[in-house]
Amino acid sequence: MRILVLGAGALGGYFGGRLQQAGAEVSFLVRPRRAAQLAERGLVIESPFGNATLPVSTVAAEAPGSGYDLILLTCKAYDLAAAIEAIRPAVGPGTAVLPVLNGLSHLATLDAAFGREAVLGGLAKIQATLAPDGTVRQLNDWRWLTFGERDGTLSPRVQALAALAGKAPGIVAEAVPDIMLRMWEKLVHLGTSVIGTVLLRASTGEIARAPGGVEFMAKVLARNAAIAAAEGQPVRQSFLEDIGRVFADPQGGYTTSMLRDLEAGERIEADHILGFLVQAAQRAGVPSEIHEAALLHCKAYEQRRDAGRLPGGTGPG
Question: Domain for residue 261, yes or no?
Fold first, then answer.
């Protein structure tokens, strides 16, 4: 299987490298600095499931190549437009595009660019980081890659990817017939986590230890579940119970990447997660004032960041 991976950061580097170990012919579409780093050191992965240093093939946006069976899209949602233009020359008649971005709003954008039949549903669950020297470090045992056709069929292409990924060290891969439900469940989880940790600037455990914190998170979780149900994707009760326990744990240390990005003065995916949920809540008639407050908080942060007025003078202004 010929695979193009957009980027070789924490997520793309990890999954792309593991798929190469499984026997795929993988190319990484990267910027010149990352290409030079990979040429000098190789793709270095440090993981509880085995370290690896892999010689890898890189391509540039000016000449991404063609004939790919799969393109793995691992960008942030706010870089989607640029990512589409970067991969557009590489998408052929038989190419499947597998996005593992947060949220769901990217699906309509990709459908418009490449046609609905080309775009799979997908999600990744992994905690990894890209060190300054280019090393991809996996931080815990999360290593899940879930994907499927959005019409619910288990097509030959998703079965082939599942068979390939099943041979890869350090990946738990699954082709599923209900990928849209899985994506909505992730959004219910992520949306609740983001609203709590970003709006309150705290970990889930810190929120749970604060007066009213458990009740607040339970209310947001219930509203997000109601949004999903109104969109035709009622989440499983077992899922709600599992996630509810995470939010009620006073010893929990879970935060979100959006909170970490916000505290570091980086760009955030406010529109793609919170903005999407606000609109969905309003369509469904679900009370949305908490969602709106979280979105307002993030949009005000973006204004301050753009003006270069964050603590320490961080931001692009």
Answer: yes
